[in-house]
Write a structure and sequence with these properties.
Layout lengths: L16 H16 L3 E3 L2 E4 L2 E4 L2 H12 L4 E3 H8 L7 H15 L4 E6 L3 E6 L3
Antiparallel strand pairs: 1-2, 2-3, 4-6, 5-6
Helix pairs in contact: 2-3
């Protein structure tokens, strides 16, 4: 069967023990790997994407709180140090960032009146 969840895999029986163990290990690495931002390149277990400088700063804050809420003020401060852009500027950049990271199985969810959560897109 086709799967969309990277934490799911299938094997046809009969399968030898070594093949099953190799699939289990591969799944474990795929699911447990947290994304890494290195010099503007965001890497995950499923691929990588280059980010513009401003979006890399925003991603840095989201990654530091991976799976948890990053408050809006922290995201704004990272993207625009010493400035206070209007609300739409952040929304536009988050929209672009969401599109960039979708192919590598990440998503940014908005938590109303709290901030944003970066998490795997299959959760």
């Amino acid at each position: 069967p086709l799967t969309v969840d990277p934490s799911e895999d299938w094997v046809r029986l009969p399968a030898n023990h070594e093949d099953v163990q190799a699939r289990i290990e591969s799944l474990r690495r795929r699911v447990e790997a947290e994304p890494v931002l290195d010099d503007g390149v965001l890497r995950t277990a499923t691929g990588w994407v280059a980010l513009p400088e401003l979006e890399a700063r925003i991603m840095g804050v989201l990654l530091s709180r991976f799976g948890r809420v990053a408050d809006r003020q922290s995201v704004l401060a990272a993207g625009w140090p010493g400035e206070t852009p209007n609300r739409n500027v952040l929304d536009v950049h988050l929209h672009r960032l969401r599109r960039r990271i979708a192919p590598i199985d990440l998503c940014i969810r908005t938590v109303r009146k709290r901030g944003y959560i970066l998490e795997p897109s299959y959760q």
